[in-house]
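Question: Hello, beginner here. Any chance you could explain the protein record under this note? Any guidance would be welcome.
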Amino acid sequence: AGIDISISVSGYSLGGADAGNYSLLNPILSASISPKSLNITGITGADKVYDGTTTASVIGTASLSGILSGDDVILEDASVFTFASSAVGTDIDINTTGYSLDGVDAGNYSLVPLTLSADISKQNINITGLIADSKDYDGTDSVRVIGTAILSGVESGDDVTLEGTPSFSFSSAGAGIDIPITMSGYSLGGLDAANYTLVNSLSATISPKSLNITGITGADKVYDGTTTASVIGTASLSGILSGDD
């Protein structure tokens, strides 16, 4: 490759009856040979979860496509990848630096700029500082939550606030251990709120409700050498909540 490269001319001659009266001067010619474009293939942009930075990465191994057979060209890799924006989004452009060509024939080629992109998805942040009270089964999903809500996981320097008036309920009214607590009413505010998703990790236990057997009393008997006993009355359950089977 080069600019204004001299062109050697040969093969022209003069003919005709009077050709001997002339001499031929070959033209002075030049032209440019542009470097052949090479593409970097084998890599794609890697999606990531929002972290407040433009740092990007790729998946795969970079290789050159388009080298002419026999030419000595290699890809030098000191690559650095950065997203065009640090915010959550899809198909965000990735800027690439650090690739170069080396080898005896490298000057005859040029690299085509990479066109990479990837997604940045929202980061989960938790609410801490709250405690959900366990309770005995009462047929409802009501739950008592105490404490002061605090956001946990916001990247340093980001403007994110917790807003709204919350309400809480068990995700299931039946007895169980570590039942997830459903939370509603909270929202995120602040300039960087769109980069986050609010998640809730509260849980509590609903213990089985105790039921008594009523309606029977022990019956006295005359000694008969056995431990056999009997009762008087009809057994029934006391304490079942209305509507429960």
Remarks:
- The chain has a mean pLDDT of 95.
- The first strand starts at residue 2 and ends at 7.
- DSSP finds no helices and 20 strands in the chain.
- The radius of gyration is 41 Å.
